[in-house]
């Protein structure tokens, strides 16, 4: 009987059906090479094998199988399908994101695809010839060689001593090397005394001590509570622990149990920024079982990791960022999502626009694992789930050991300005504290939510500001690079010498970013060693790690940074944290602004005083009476949560509603306006008052295209699957219409 296979291709399209050639052994989840269209060869994943002939004439055959064994198990395919269905994209788009780039060879011909295929790096290994494993023969040979060819003799002894399979140096830095040079080894090979073979490099296992930290009484109680809830049948739990309470120690204990049983553990972190410190901490305990996975690794490394894991026997601990949820950990028993509230778990562009935290919760159901969400400042969604009994919950209310929560001081910028107690962007209070900290040999972190030197450049005469020609935003001034940059599209230009509008004055930088703060602080404290950490300064993993290591080992005194420095870092020497300007966090139009501000300020503050030396935090603001600021000072997460939840309920926002944000894009603003109006009208016919918009987003032009937004709010209890179905139908109809099909519509489920 002829067989067919539905193949998922890395496209925004449904699966395509191909014929399975006679005699081809094929399994679901395998990667294959297929011809797509007249002149394109792509990698696809076998989704389903069946015998139903599709009703088109020419059904192309699958060309060949790639990688041998299947890449995806059935539960993993179920996860991809869930992601596609929930986030309203194709399984092919999930494939695009889930598989490392080098694993999807393609080309205009079959030869091109073959040339594009990933080839694992092989290395040459040398071993004693099998005959010589006989001791008598070996000794006889040694006696002969010792006098006549001492070099060969030495090399032979070395190979014998190293056991089977010693890697030969190949120019690269090698871990175990022979002293003997290649020439001598080749002679030995010619004589049949040793064998040399090309082999894929294997990761050497070992080095794990499993020496776990001793837990405090509070930590032990939390760990026991989590275990009991997991065993009691609740697959997801929240660990709500204040900053510095030792959540990581609890992760370590839970991970150790799973690893000892041969299961896999996935530890998710919101940003690569944090991985280095945590990986080092994990490696001290779990040795080479720890694998890092993030975007700063080379494409080759990511692919090697993926392929290695498909062949793994279990006992893996992967520490990675959001895309690691797609790694083939077939014995996954525990997923830990650290800093679960963090918005970086959400991929906003391109599709799949998934939230790895929410996927981790779904994975507990689909893969039969357990999911632990950890945070000092949980998202309100998670907090509500934990308090309504849907998730398990354990709390750590105090910092570990003798560390106390930091004291938080507010410093009123308006008052300081009036009294003349302000220098640059610093109030006297903060400057005094920095001076005192330097005198005591302590370290300071300064937080400013903006990178660059100044947010914009403006003419003091006529008010002209430098704007991006393609986006409706001002350009950011970067002093070190002496240029203006668009943070949306990357456009750069030089600062004009004279104002292009009035030609009278010279445009000057206004406002301030991290670069300017670092410059000012270096002027105010010339003896201090100042470093900066943000997306501009952390150009590579190495540059980033160097800055972090310098600060951790106290080679720098003051670290200035964006949110990159706010999260998760555990620097023992930091006794002072300064927030330059809390106002722009609070004055955000987003409905999550208050929650976000509380989270960010609490996280930043949490970097201070993590050991014996008490920590102090100075927050500069023009609005010291602000409710959220007060709650941060009091460390009162519950008060913030209750106040915010009441508002969310009243105005029908998450967690009481689910949002789907639609963004329409087109170069022609008039066509866009008509299209958005028409789509809104049609959606209202289906969803009534659940539809908001069209709205012009805060930045309404990007890369030359105009933007319009629509928002769909669905009751939390209602069937979101049904709503997504109806919405999908309307969008397909809209996209098929001649008048509107040139409009791009992007669908973002649960936008952040
Ligand atoms: P969190 O992630 O909750 O902010 P960490 O896990 O980073 O806190 O812990 C804060 C500091 O306290 C770390 O330096 C950590 O090594 C230390 N610590 C916490 N618990 C223990 C413990 N049980 N034994 C030894 N050190 C601990
Ligand atoms: Zn001007
Ligand atoms: Zn731009």
Describe the protein's architecture and organization.
With 752 residues, this protein is α/β, with parallel strands linked by helices. The chain has 6 domains: 3-116, 3-Layer(aba) Sandwich (GIY-YIG endonuclease), CATH 3.40.1440; 122-200, no CATH class; 219-396, Rossmann fold (3-Layer(aba) Sandwich); 407-451 and 518-646, 3-Layer(aba) Sandwich (Rossmann fold), CATH 3.40.50; 454-511, no CATH class; 657-749, Alpha-Beta Plaits (2-Layer Sandwich), CATH 3.30.70.600. The chain has 22 helices and 33 strands. The strands form 8 sheets. A 7-stranded parallel beta sheet has the order 11-12-10-13-14-9-15, sandwiched between helices. Strand 21 (476-478) and strand 22 (483-485) form a beta hairpin. It starts with a strand and ends with a strand. Mean pLDDT is 90; it is low at 170-176.
Largest sheet: 7 strands, parallel
Which CATH class of the largest domain is shown?
Alpha Beta
Q: What would CATH call the homologous superfamily of the largest domain?
A: P-loop containing nucleotide triphosphate hydrolases
Summing up helix and strand content along with how strands pair, one would put the structural category as alpha/beta
């Amino acid at each position: 009987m002829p067989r067919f296979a539905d193949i998922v291709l890395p496209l925004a399209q449904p699966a395509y059906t191909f014929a399975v050639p006679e005699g081809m052994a094929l399994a679901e989840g395998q990667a294959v090479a297929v011809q797509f269209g007249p002149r394109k060869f792509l990698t696809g994943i076998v989704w389903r094998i069946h015998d139903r002939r599709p009703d088109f004439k020419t059904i192309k055959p699958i060309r060949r199988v790639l990688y041998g064994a299947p890449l995806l198990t059935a539960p993993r395919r179920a996860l991809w399908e869930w992601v596609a269905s929930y986030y309203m994209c194709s399984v092919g788009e999930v494939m695009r994101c889930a598989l490392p780039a080098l694993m999807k060879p393609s080309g205009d011909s079959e030869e091109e695809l073959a040339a594009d295929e990933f080839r694992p790096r092989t290395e040459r290994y040398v071993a004693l010839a099998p005959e010589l494993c006989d001791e008598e023969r070996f000794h006889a040979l040694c006696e002969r060689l010792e006098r006549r060819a001492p070099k060969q003799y030495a090399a032979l002894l070395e190979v014998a001593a190293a056991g089977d399979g010693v890697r030969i140096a190949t120019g690269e830095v090698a871990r175990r090397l022979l002293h003997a040079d290649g020439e001598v080894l080749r002679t030995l090979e010619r004589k049949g005394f040793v064998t040399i073979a090309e082999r894929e490099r294997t990761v050497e296992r070992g080095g794990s001590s499993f020496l776990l930290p001793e837990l405090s009484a509070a930590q032990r109680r939390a760990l026991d509570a989590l275990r009991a809830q997991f065993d009691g049948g609740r697959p997801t739990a929240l660990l709500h622990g204040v900053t510095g309470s030792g959540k990581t120690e609890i992760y370590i204990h839970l991970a150790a149990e799973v690893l000892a049983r041969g299961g896999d553990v996935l530890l998710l972190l919101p940003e690569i920024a944090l991985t280095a410190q945590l990986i080092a901490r994990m490696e001290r305990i779990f040795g080479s079982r720890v694998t890092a996975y993030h975007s700063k690794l080379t494409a080759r490394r990511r692919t090697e990791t993926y392929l290695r894991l498909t062949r793994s026997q279990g006992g893996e601990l992967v520490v990675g960022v959001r895309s690691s949820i797609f790694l083939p950990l077939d014995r996954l028993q525990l997923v830990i999502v650290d800093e679960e509230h963090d918005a970086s778990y959400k991929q906003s562009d391109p599709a799949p626009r998934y939230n790895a935290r929410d996927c981790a919760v779904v994975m507990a159901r689909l893969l039969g694992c357990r999911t632990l969400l950890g945070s000092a400042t949980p998202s309100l969604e998670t907090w509500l789930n934990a308090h309504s009994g849907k998730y398990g919950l354990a709390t750590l209310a105090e910092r570990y050991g003798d560390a106390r929560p930091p004291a938080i001081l507010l410093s009123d910028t308006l008052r300081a300005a009036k009294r003349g107690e302000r220098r640059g962007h610093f109030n006297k209070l903060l400057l005094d504290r920095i001076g005192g900290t330097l005198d005591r040999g302590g370290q300071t972190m300064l937080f400013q939510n903006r990178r660059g030197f100044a947010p914009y450049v403006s003419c003091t005469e006529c008010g002209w500001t430098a704007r991006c020609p393609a986006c409706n935003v001002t350009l950011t001034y970067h002093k070190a690079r002496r240029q203006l940059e668009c943070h949306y599209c990357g456009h750069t230009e030089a600062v004009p010498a004279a104002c292009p509008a009035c030609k009278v004055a010279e445009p000057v930088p206004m406002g301030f970013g991290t670069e300017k703060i670092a410059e000012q602080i270096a002027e105010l404290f010339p003896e201090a060693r100042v470093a900066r950490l943000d997306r501009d300064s952390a150009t590579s993993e190495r540059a980033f790690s160097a800055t972090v290591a310098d600060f951790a080992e106290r080679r720098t005194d003051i670290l200035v940074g964006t949110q990159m420095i706010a999260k998760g870092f555990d620097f023992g020497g930091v006794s002072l944290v300064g927030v330059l300007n809390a106002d722009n966090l609070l004055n955000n139009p987003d409905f999550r602004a208050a929650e976000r501000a509380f989270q960010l300020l609490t996280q930043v503050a949490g970097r201070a005083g993590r050991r014996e030396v008490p920590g102090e935090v100075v927050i500069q603001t023009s609005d010291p009476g602000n409710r959220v600021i007060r709650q941060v000072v009091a460390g009162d997460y519950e008060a913030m949560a209750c106040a915010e939840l009441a508002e969310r309920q009243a105005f029908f926002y998450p967690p009481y509603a689910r949002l789907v944000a639609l963004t329409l894009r087109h170069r022609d603003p008039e066509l866009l306006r008509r299209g958005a109006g028409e789509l809104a009208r049609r959606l209202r016919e289906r969803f009534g008052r659940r539809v908001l918009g069209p709205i012009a987003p805060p930045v309404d032009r990007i890369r030359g295209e105009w933007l319009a937004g629509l928002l769909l709010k669905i009751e939390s209890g209602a069937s979101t699957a049904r709503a997504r179905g109806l919405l999908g139908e309307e969008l397909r109809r809209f996209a098929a219409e001649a008048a509107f099909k040139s409009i791009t519509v992007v669908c973002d489920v649960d936008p952040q």
